[in-house]
From TrEMBL:
Family membership: Belongs to the NADH dehydrogenase family.
Classification via InterPro entries: FAD/NAD-bd_sf (IPR036188), FAD/NAD-binding_dom (IPR023753), NADH-Q_oxidoreductase (IPR051169)
Cofactor(s) for this UniProt protein: FAD
Name this polypeptide is given: FAD-dependent oxidoreductase
């Protein structure tokens, strides 16, 4: 009987994991199934471009995994029962229960509402393709004019605000942030960021915490009202509540607690990758929720799975966060290198940074979208003592 590996989520972490496992595990011993709510691989890196009305290349999962042996199941995950080793999904024809032997949890994250009233009812976000498309449609309905309020000061907020302002020059784009815009950047990078906002005509309100979102704008904690025809909520990420309800050990924010090899500390056979995983990086701090972290955590998770199931040595992947790479529209950007957990003075700005980021995005997307590019002989068979090895790997 084949060992059943289910990968939940087909973002960067999940798509890479499914393809890598299929390349390295013998199909006679293993069956890899990827479950995703959408039929396509979505470049989350570029969702701010979708929101601005740009069209991205269509990448069907069925085409990506054709010839790999990976089974693609288009369904929404509704529950995970880690004790019974099962997943409940909804594929549009009622609920279905899937059983697994090994689970890769890579469901990612969504927008964090921070319990602010009105966010769910009146604000847009850009953490999924469907949400980005809805925002694009709203801007079209506005005729490319009016006021868009972007709430947040992180990378998503910055990239969203600049992309919207560049793509829709007749829009008035306003950004509010509870802190200082780009305050974590080195002086050179922050100065370039502020110049880009000035060039694009983006109005910035720093140290402004939004307390409520209304249909026609938002109310700040100080009582000031920020009128908007569309509000974009980009104030951080939150993981889906499925993990916390699954029986898995999780952090207070709902991320799955894993060891250095991305194994759940509470359940043998469950591995997490991407935004859903809480792991300490090489600098002694938790890896941030980011697409960059998805690559390293999925590499480490797949290495652990292959080692645990086939009896081999688990390869160690560096869990690092190398820096911030920020798009400021299509022709401008910032590459801010990070030294450990301290910002570095080294930075690249302008067109060069934009070109480097575009190259990084294309390379990363090509890698996950072409899992058979370097298909080796899949000679790794199931180890006889695999379950014993995995149980011993989980701390008591």
């Amino acid at each position: 009987m084949q060992h059943r590996i289910i990968v939940l989520g087909a973002g960067y972490a999940g798509t890479f994991a499914a393809g890598y496992l299929a390349r390295h595990l013998h199909p006679a011993d293993f069956q890899v199934t990827v479950v995703n709510a959408e039929p396509d691989f979505v470049e989350r890196f570029r969702l701010h471009q979708v929101a601005a009305g740009q069209t991205l290349k269509h990448r069907p999962l069925a085409k990506i995994f054709a010839g790999t042996g990976v089974e693609v199941k288009i369904a929404r995950v509704t529950a995970v029962d880690a004790d019974r080793k099962s997943v409940t999904v909804d594929g549009g024809c009622g609920l279905e229960r899937l059983e697994y032997d090994t689970l890769v949890y890579a469901l990612g994250s969504t927008a964090a509402h921070h319990d602010v009233p009105g966010v769910g009812e009146h604000a847009h976000h850009i953490t999924s393709r469907a949400a980005a498309v809805r925002l694009s449609e709203r801007l079209d309905a506005m005729g490319g004019k009016g006021t868009v309020l972007v709430v947040g000061g992180n990378l998503t907020a910055i990239e969203g605000a600049t992309e919207l302002a560049e793509s829709h020059p007749d829009l008035k784009v306003v950004l509010t942030t509870s802190g200082e815009l780009g305050g974590w950047l080195a002086p050179k990078s922050r100065a370039h960021l502020l110049r880009a906002f000035d060039r694009l005509g983006i109005e910035v309100h720093e140290h402004t915490r939004i307390a409520r979102v209304e249909p026609n704008g938002a109310i700040a904690a100080d009582g000031s009202f920020h009128a908007a025809d569309a509000t974009v909520w980009a104030a951080g990420f939150a993981v889906h509540p499925i993990a916390a309800a699954s029986g898995l050990a999780v952090e207070p924010n709902g991320q799955i607690t894993v060891d250095r090899q991305m194994r759940s500390v509470s359940h043998p056979g469950v591995y997490a990758a991407g935004d859903a995983a809480f792991v300490i990086g090489e600098n002694g701090r938790p890896l941030p929720m980011s697409c960059a972290s998805a690559g390293f955590t999925s590499q480490q998770a797949t290495a652990a799975i292959i080692g645990d199931l086939t009896g081999g040595k688990v390869k160690r992947t560096g869990l690092v966060y190398v820096g911030n790479h920020i798009s400021l529209g299509r022709r401008d950007g910032i590459l801010q290198v990070v030294d450990g957990d301290v910002r570095s003075r080294y930075a690249v700005t302008g067109r060069t940074a934009a070109r480097v980021k575009e190259l990084v995005l294309k390379t990363a997307t090509w890698g996950v979208a072409n899992p058979t590019a370097k298909l080796p002989a899949r000679s790794h068979h199931m180890a006889v003592d695999a379950e014993v090895r995995r149980t011993e790997a989980v701390p008591a």
